[in-house]
Amino acid sequence: MRVLLLNMPWSPIDLPSLALGILKRSVDERVAGATCEVLHANLEFTDWITARTEFSAEDYEYYALSSYFLGCGDWVFSSALYDDPHWKEAEFTEVMTARLRASRMRMTKELHAVVPEFVAEIAQRVVDLAPDVVGLTSTFQQNTAALAAARHIKRLAPHIVTVMGGANCDAEQGAAVHRNFPFVDYVVRGEGEDAFPRLLEAVRDGTRAEAAAGIPGLCHRTGGAPTANAMPTGPLPPAAILPPDYSGYFERLAAGVARNWVEPKLVVEGARGCWWGEKHHCTFCGLNGSFMEFRSKSPDTFYEEITGLAERHRVLDMYVVDNILDMRYLTSVLPRIVESGHDLRMHIEIKANMRRPQLQVLADAGLIYVQPGIESLNSRVLDLMDKGVSGCQNVRMLRDAAETGLSVSWNYLHGFPGETDEDYDPVIRQLPALEHLNPPVDLSARIAIERFSPYFNRPELGFTGLRPEEHYFFTYDLPEEELYDLAYVFEAPERGIGEVTVDRLNAALATWKKRHTDARLTHTDLGDEIVLVSRREGYDWRSLRLTDPFHLAVFRLLDQPHSPAALHRKATADAAFADRTPQDVAVLLTEWTAQGVVFTDGGQYVHLAPASVNQDLLRLDYMSHLYARPADGSADTTGAADSAARPSAAPAPALP
Length: 656
What we know:
Layout: E1 2-6, H1 18-30, E2 35-39, H2 41-50, H3 57-66, H4 72-81, H5 89-96, H6 102-128, E3 133-137, H7 143-156, E4 161-165, H8 171-180, E5 186-188, H9 192-205, H10 208-211, E6 218-222, E7 225-228, H11 249-254, E8 266-268, E9 271-272, H12 275-279, E10 295-296, H13 299-313, E11 317-320, H14 333-340, E12 345-349, H15 356-364, E13 369-371, H16 379-385, H17 391-404, E14 407-408, E15 413-414, H18 421-430, E16 445-446, E17 449-450, H19 454-457, E18 467-468, H20 470-473, H21 480-486, E19 489-491, H22 499-515, E20 520-525, E21 530-535, E22 543-546, H23 549-557, H24 564-571, H25 582-594, E23 598-601, E24 604-607, H26 615-625, E25 635-636
Parallel strand pairs: 1-2, 1-3, 3-4, 4-5, 8-11, 11-12, 12-13, 13-14, 15-16
Antiparallel strand pairs: 5-6, 6-7, 9-10, 17-19, 18-19, 20-21, 21-22, 22-25, 23-24
Helix pairs in contact: 1-9, 2-6, 4-6, 4-7, 6-7, 8-21, 13-14, 15-17, 18-22, 23-24, 24-25
């Protein structure tokens, strides 16, 4: 039996498909008599489209990721799905003219008109390969392209069994795909490592009519009527999650135009689910779909997969897809990576309350890009999200990441029921103090309501009357009740802050992004004094010396978030400071806040200055100016001490 796995646009071109890599290995190892290969149609598309239009890497990234909440990528291939190069063009134009610049509108319409030809060619190529089964994956803006391919394949060769799966086919979404598109024979909902091989064995043995009913989550047809089996009662255990087989991807990438566009990365997976979400599901997050339960591979298994893939493919850049880091890996997998000598560069999602020593382990192991899910710098808004962190902890994460050389990729979100303008005012005022730290990847975005999130499942949290986002209506030819089951993103009445505050916030974030490259704030602890160096446009001081022993003690305590009362209690535990009063602490915090030395939120304070990269060079620099400086606590605005190096941080990668 021949199995072909098809990866259609807009799957990312710089990454092999983890899902298809796992399924390929599942077929090869678990289905006797079957052969399996992957057709990287996303890479085929880059060659095909660049021969016909002025299409670039930036264009592909836009349709694959950046336009996700606008649905542009799926609308492009809706013309191939419905055999109409002008499919709902008038509706698209009416809705999107105000949202897209003119050049992007032209490009989208041009692609919409020509992609039916590409899908027809891919379908013919698939048929020529004579597979018995074609499996199509669908994630993000891949749905219409995958459906269009399935339709054309079935039209050319009705005997080929078509199977769809992926994130767009989870739970109700998969059932909606199956009952509305009869050219899809089966839909695998949820994890496919068990269901897909079992289905293939039934196809091989000629028992699929009988076997289909016993495969959890599978959508099949009984007497021509669509049937959706009950979802699995639990997720796969970690031992059942196989390592991916990426055979063919890197060779195909090297043979096409995309090799000039991207530096390829490996995709690795250590865990599924979210251990924080099991306790406190972030109210806006729908990423884990049907199964939140956290499970992770053994440290030995994960380490061997990472190093094995790196050695086989000679690629050191890796994207770790885990929704949250298994904290065991900090003392098991990551130290072994450091010891291995592999110069890996990895991107991973973490929780924002990790401490500096933990971040240093990440940096030493090559996890240079981290996504800590910051989302806001205000504790009250973070509580509305059920994030389990404070605003000061998020700022500490940005500071400590800068100090350890990590680049932080994060988003600022707003629009939470119950938030107020007053929650944002103090943050906006203090953003100029943060310009030396990684800004968010984009301006603040109003939250989208995602399927599987608490905001979707629990209307009492503030969102009622949900409808599928508008782009689903001009992409599919389906009634609203079917779109409701198919959709992942939903329209809802706006909640939270109004546009005036949004505009103020975004203006401040835009300034932060503009000034970040040239901004710096560092501190050097010389024992009997601490010297701070600043170059931020909102502050006219360049260096600040702290020599008062009490000030030194308070500053060092502010390495972690503290309330004024806690600062006073801990500092005055030293008998030398027993006469210092809470008012002394309050005056100092007020002064340091005005100077942009500390950040305050929710009654807590934390200092903003990463330790300087090269303490020895800084010590020499400061010694040369030591006697020319003003007294303790005053600012040197001459710029004499401005040669200190700012901790380097690579730019944060863009997210959808």
